[in-house]
Specification:
By secondary structure, the protein is mostly helical. It contains five helices and no strands. Keywords: Transducer.
């Protein structure tokens, strides 16, 4: 019977080995040992199997257990309690992990939607600014052309006035000669002298008017030069602004030439990556 029990057959029991009190006592003691051992093995196996399946309510029944059997049963019960506490902590950790994954997914989706919306608005604004900058550059260039034409026209006016001054100078000289000749002619040249004097006065007035025109032309040329300088500076500033706005639009919408993704595309990539990460976290 002991060899059968050592081989794992705990259901075997010792039959009657005699009618003497010693034989009856020996049979009872051996079978009692087999009963307790069999009960311990069954209860410990059932409790541990239930714990492995997460059914921690299945307790090790210690009724009838004494000595080392009872101590071992208490140890298994304590281990069962510790496993249950660990399982509770693991479950709480899983719930916290899933809650964190949900929060992360929600936050990233919200951010990505806001980024996509902002990118769309920024792209529209940048494109509008770019169009405005191009129109402003075109307008400034037309202004430069107009002011340049004004400067050219003022140069032509100055040349014409110079020619008038030359004519006036020649006229004064002729009037002086005519006056001298009229004086030599005496009474006969008096009328001619009057005409020569009027011609001289007209020439002087023409010269004075020409000087005023030259002054005004000089003022116009100076203003035109200042206007050209200002327009050139403004035009260059607008061109620089146009380049910056174009760069912003490329950053927002993405550049097809360089292959760089825009904000909307990056937001979509971020959303996809986080979705894959959250799916992995939930599945693990």
């Amino acid at each position: 019977m002991c060899r059968r029990a050592a081989a794992g057959d705990l259901e075997a029991r010792l039959p009657a080995i005699g009618d003497s009190p010693a034989a009856i006592e020996a049979r009872s003691a051996v079978n009692a040992l087999l009963d307790v051992t069999d009960a311990f093995v069954r209860e410990s196996g059932a409790a541990l199997s239930a714990a492995a399946e997460g059914r921690f309510h299945r307790r090790f029944l210690t009724r009838g257990m004494l000595g080392s059997f009872r101590h071992a049963a208490s140890t298994i019960g304590a281990a069962n309690d510790a496993m249950q506490a660990s399982a509770v902590r693991v479950a709480e950790s899983d719930r916290a992990r899933l809650a964190l994954a949900d929060q992360l997914e929600s936050a990233v989706l919200t951010v990505s939607e806001q980024v996509a919306t902002a990118a769309t608005e920024m792209g529209a604004s940048a494109n509008g600014l770019s169009d405005f900058a191009r129109e402003a550059v075109a307008g400034a260039e037309r202004g430069l052309t107009t002011v340049g034409s004004l400067r050219t026209a003022s140069d032509q006016i100055r040349n014409a006035v110079d020619l008038i001054n030359q004519v006036a100078s020649q006229t004064r000289l002729l009037a002086l000669n005519a006056t001298i000749e009229a004086a030599r002619a005496g009474e006969a040249g008096r009328g001619f002298s009057v005409v020569a004097g009027e011609v001289k006065v007209l020439a002087n007035e023409t010269s004075e008017s020409s000087d005023e025109i030259i002054g005004q032309v000089a003022t116009v040329q100076s203003a035109a030069a200042d206007a050209i300088e200002v327009l050139e500076s403004v035009t260059e500033s607008i061109r620089e602004m146009s380049r910056l706005v174009t760069g912003i639009a490329a950053a927002v919408d993405g550049s097809h030439d360089s292959g760089n993704a825009g904000l909307s595309q990056l937001a979509e990539v971020l959303r996809g990556e986080v979705s894959r990460f959250v799916t992995t976290v939930r599945a693990s």
